Amino acid sequence: MFMACSLTHELGKALNEPPVAVEIIPGNGDEWLSEGTEPHKRFLLVENHLGVPSKVLYEAYLEAVAVFQRCRALSLARPDGQLPGDDPAIHDECLNSSAVLILLNPGHNTAWNARKSVILSGHRDLNKELSFTTALLTVRECAKQSLLWYHRRWLLRKTYPMSTLHHSSSSLERLRDLDVDITDTDTEDEDTLRHTNMTVETLESEFSACTLACGTYERNYFGWSHRFRCLDALYSMIRRGDGAGDPTRVARLLQLLHEESSRLCMWIEQNVSDYTAMQYRCQVDLVMQRYSRTFFDTEDSNATTSLPPFSHARTLLDSYPVHEALWLYLRGSALIRMKQDTGMIHQLQQIAERFVVDKARPEGNQSLTASSSLAEAERHALQLLSWIKWRTAKNVVSARS
């Protein structure tokens, strides 16, 4: 029924192995294919890195549509809606054709659902499918696709059993007593990772996958959303381990939390306008404040990657005062410490007034050389002062009531 040597079969098989990374090459790839190996002569596969010429991909896509439709017809003809279980070749072709469809059109919901059906039938390894989605994160259009991230979380829930120690409310929601107005990122829905009993290594891989995706596509809303959900899962695992009296596991999870915070410091320093990353780091440090308060008591000026959020934001603001995201980072990080440090409002006010009153370029700062940059920094400082005034008035009203 299916063409064993078809382009869909060859490309789909290469994608499903899966490769380490995938790149769609412009044109037909004539200048590259001389280096290709014999089994993959229409595309390039070198050291498990797959390069697919765009013209070849379009040709494969048209062929894959026909193959996928035939697979769908077979499943729809059955009462259970599944592919015939006695022919592994049919499941392979469903996987191959759907992989090609997803590479060019990662929003193909039917193709993703077909892959779920093959997995549920036992004809696809869950870890291999997870690696398949990781490989697609190196493709710009795939990295920003919500269906890919949903599929990835579905795989995690299938791979790891649900914990029996469920909590009635969002794990991050329990941090509300810190009085921080950072939006909760995960509610009780079917797409949560909160109750999954993932290993520490899996969580590390998920954080790395999010970093990979954000490097592929900078403003990656769904990548950061996935990372927030993984943080919620991590916090839930710490709470369960703490409640079960497992100090060794809690210590390893807290170590992962510290590593995540350090990675975020580096990311923010390289992406000073990425406010989503800054907001996420504030959430990370909320968890650290709950379970690792000593982190906030040490400020190593020689290691910027380990600076607490407020010190980190203040340091970056001295160098890049025109970036509004850094002013919001400063404000959000101050909120974390406000209950523990009653002088935080005064510190914020001093920082803001330095840009409004003095109007002098901070020592070593190269960002305020132009008058337009000076005005922009002053505007952000005035906004912070207005917020401080509003916050102070709110605290007075709360104290009276």
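That was protein one. Protein two is written in the same sequence-then-structure order:
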Amino acid sequence: MDVVEEDIVIVGAGIAGLTTALGLHRVPRFGFRRGLGFQSLVLESSDGLRVTGFALTVWTNAWRVLDAIGVGESLRQQHDQLSGGSDFSLQAASTVSGLPTSEISFKAKGKLGEHDVRCVQRKVLLEALLKELPDGTIRYSSKVVSIEESGYLKLVHLADGSILKTKVLVGCDGVNSMVAKWLGFKKPAFARRSALRGCAYFKNGHAFEPKFKQFFGKGIRSGFIPCNDKTVYWFMTFTPSSQEKEMEHDPTKMKQFALSNLGKVPDQVKAVLEITELDSISLAQLRFRHPWELLWGNISKDNVCVAGDAFHPMTPDLGQGGCAAIEDGVVLASCLAEALSKKPNNKAEEEDAEGEEFKRIKTGLEKYAKERRFRGFDLITSAYLIGFIQQSDGKVLNFLRDKMAAFFAGILLKKADFDCGKLSMS
């Protein structure tokens, strides 16, 4: 079978993969206007865009990136800002007593300016990114089965027998990443927690204020966030037992489990679960990469690197998994664009043009890894610790959770008060 050559191959058409592809397409090149950047090929194993998790909280740090790649405003028009009719945008309460434990305002000003927090539907986000990419950027039904070295290039073998030869290989292929495995990363660890996620659609609109409501108690954490005037996203994290096995492929049992473990919550909250259609509920184990693996592991090696969940899978307790993937995309695009834009400086470099380009790509990916390593370490560690305490059922940890609830809520804004840099070539 013929080998097809591509300059940049990205594995996975999720948030990280599409953000990286659009960042490369948008990055200014040789001083020209935006849109004359670099073409990439995105490989997606499924036959269409895959949407898992239904929605995600997009924090201020990610909105800066979405604005930089030109999709921020269109997404804002479809999703409400979390602010509410009062000063409080995040409210936490106990499901045992039914009483509130903390409140925090998303109107608080950070070091880098005003906060912007919205719950964004994954499908809408992915479609917005795809819409801005050139036709033919994504190749569907293209599952990677192996990676092989070929001089300065990489050979990517697909399940259908076809082979791609590429100068740059980027793994954005999720927690079970083939590229991360090639780089030497271990399979992400099980956090001993699972998550039910769902989306409720109110045909005639709902009465929820644009606020993030969280509930804690008896080892279970749940949350409810409106995306817009007709859609409410919800989640429930818990410590699994044999019961999880029984409901693994049965959304009816998933819904029953969620309803029976809500505890003391307002009727309006219960109604969200009751109205959720069975095909809008999912169950997944929570996995994360041990943070020390990011310190010592190969985020990049030669002309290969990882981004998104292939790089830093984390528990959802900060709401930063998708946001960090968006950050990865623009940082990686900038580093790659800088490497690919440089020209030979002398005759010796011209004679070994392929080798010199390989060195520049390697250096560019090392720069990306250096910039993102400690950000990933920080987010994984913080998310795990906060989740461990918030979902605990012991007396001491429950006391700490309730007394320090406002502090933990403040960490959410602190981690969002971050700027990963502009989309540009240094």
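The longest strand covers residues 189-201. Keep this in mind for the problem set.
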